[in-house]
Amino acid sequence: MENLIARGMQITPSCCLCNGSEETMGHLFLHCSFVGSIWEDVLSPLRSHGLSMSNFITVEALLNAWPRARGTEFGLKVGKLAPYAVIWSVWRARNDSIFRNRTRTAEQVRKEVMAFLWNWMANDDQRGDHHFRELLLDWVSLIQGIG
Ligand SMILES: [Zn+2]
Q: What InterPro entries does the record point to (predicted)?
């Protein structure tokens, strides 16, 4: 243990995204203020449903509670993948900050979330009827079928 500390490993590291709380899985992916703005944006079509990160202790609980989509098949699939894209993008932002000293803004992470979603749909037939800019600019109307 002392050897690890000597090599710079922190035992209870603080969150590198908000520089605040202790970095637990629950904090990093759910309750971090930096990440909260990304969730809020992704969930913006759902605001009336009151899905709040503070209601969840684990990522698994959030995934289990993630609302099913209605509307177009494309919107449905993207809506289903959205929480995974947020988690993946947050993990990348966290690792780049720690290991490469590269920081991102929440807006950059949000755009990456949409880029991952778009790329993950690359082999989907419905993607041809849509444009990447819909994810960036028309997210609410694309996902508003969720409920
Ligand atoms: Zn944080």
A: RVT-Znf
Note the pLDDT tens digit of each residue in 71-113: 788 988 999 999 999 999 999 999 999 999 999 999 999 999 9
- Residue pair 126/74 in contact (Cβ under 8 Å)? The answer is yes
Pair of tokens at residue 81: 């993948």
Distance 19 CA to ligand 1 centre (A): 6
Q: How far is the CA of 36 from the centre of ligand 1 (A)?
A: 9
DSSP reduced 3-state for 127: helix
Single out the residue of 34, 55, 35, 115 nearest to residue 81, CA to CA.
115
Phi/psi for 22 (5° steps) reads -60, 140
User: Residue 61 is which amino acid?
Assistant: A
pTM of model > 0.85: yes
What is the rounded CA–CA span in Å between residue 125 and residue 6? Answer: 53
